[in-house]
Each structure stands twice: as C-alpha cells, then as structure tokens.
Amino acid sequence: MQIAVLHGPNLNRLGVRNPAKYGHTTLADIQEDVDQTAARLGDRALHFQSNDESALIDWIHDNQEHTAGIVINPAGFSAYSYSLLDAVRDTFQPFAVVHISQWHAIDGKERHDIFASSAATYICGAGWRGYSMAFEALHHKLAETPSN
C-alpha cells in the first residue's frame, strides 16, 4: 500500500530552522525514517514538500488515485488553509496529522488546527519521530478497514 507523506511550509528548513525547538534532524532524515517504517510494514511512502499551498493541493489531486491514505504536517497552513483541508478530505482517504512541536501552544499562544477534527490520527509534540508514529497508526487503521 502507498501512503502519501506531505510536508508543509518551512519543513524543508528542518535541521537549521530553530534547532532549539525543532532539533537538528533534517527533512531528509525524517523521510528516511518514514521509508524504513513503511518498508517494515510492507508499504511505500510517497513524500512531497512545498512552501506553496497550491503546489500541495495540486500534488494531492495528481496523486490521490495512487495512495490509500495521507500523513500530513500542514505546518503554518494548519490554522487557516481550508483549501488544503478540502483537498485532503476530498480524497475520501483517512489521514493523519503530525506536528513536530506542540502546535496548540506555540509561542505560548493557544492555536486552533482546522485539520484536527477530521483526522483519523493526530500526533502532536512527539518530535520528528511523530511522522513514523503517524504513518504506522494510519497503516493499521487502513489494514483494519474492510474493503468495499
């Protein structure tokens, strides 16, 4: 089974972007870890990162027929991108949301994540390892769902 793993804005800067908050792990490191998790489960991860909301939406439209589910870190789009949320929901695939940090309390401010209420799995604050946790949780949800 193929599962999309989508990375939102600024995640291409992991490893150099605010290491005190996000650590020194790069996006390539995360992708390698997710690929190892996928291989262990007999799956394949299809990765895509963009700082551009429309590029993420176009990628979802172009690839939804090749995936069974989506792991997404909408990053800065989490609070307001109804267009991206609609694209994810319109696939009719279960999806997992992952945030490296505690999204709900960034900079001491309470934040709302519009993706949270629709997500099959929501992992927040587990650091970069949250991606593999979300991937594995989504894999099991998909495996347990009866086919039509």
Task: Describe the protein.
By secondary structure, the protein is α/β, with parallel strands linked by helices. The chain has one domain (2-144): Rossmann fold, CATH 3.40.50. Helices cover 36% and strands 18% of the residues. It is built from five helices and five strands; from the N terminus they run E-H-H-E-H-E-H-E-E-H. It has a five-stranded parallel sheet, with helices on both faces. Strand 3, helix 4 (82-89) and strand 4 (95-99) form a beta-alpha-beta unit. Helix 2 (27-41) packs parallel to helix 5 and helix 3 (53-63) runs parallel beside helix 4. The radius of gyration is 14 Å and the shape is globular. It starts with a strand and ends with a helix. The model has no long low-confidence stretch (mean pLDDT 93).
Oligomeric form = single chain
Structural class per helix/strand content?
alpha/beta
How helical, in percent, are the residues? 25-40%
Shape type:
globular
Rounded Rg: 14 Å
Q: Which ranges are low-confidence, i.e. pLDDT below 50, for 5 or more consecutive residues?
A: none
What CATH architecture do you see?
3-Layer(aba) Sandwich
Strands side by side in the biggest sheet:
2-1-3-4-5
- What is the overall pLDDT average? 93
- The string of secondary-structure elements, in order, is EHHEHEHEEH
Key features?
five-stranded parallel sheet, 148 residues, globular, 18% strand, Rossmann fold, alpha/beta
